[in-house]
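Our preliminary data section would be incomplete without showing what the modeling component actually yields. Below, a chain of 133 amino acids is followed by its predicted structure, encoded as tokens that our downstream tools consume directly.
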Amino acid sequence: MGTARNWFNTVRKKFIKSSQRDITILHSGNLSNQSMIREARDFHNNISASSRSSFQRKHLTREDIAAIKIQSIFRGHLARRAYGALRSVVKLQAVARGAYVRKQTQIALQCMHALVKLQVRVRARQLLGRYSE
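Predicted structure:
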């Protein structure tokens, strides 16, 4: 337990030492996607002061920024782990489908072989019938 707490404190200190920046949080009521995009574009281009009224600037502490960074890193880790699991499932599906296709191919070849045998018998009977007459 002591090493886990030590590790967390080390990570926390590293994030706290990083540069502190203001994070702009877009806060808009019930706007549609297009109007939100338009408002964001207006905000970044500094077109008018009225467009900035729907946005708030929130100053986060160093601990908040560190928590946000840790959360984003952890979410990335979970996403990579989920992607790896998905890739393994896809590989398993490919193996199962390959086995199923091989089985279908074997059945089809057996049916074709049976048809060829039947065709040989019919041709042989036809030839024997011609010579017997």
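The mean pLDDT is 76. The chain has three helices and two strands. Preliminary results of this kind motivate Aim 1 of the renewal.
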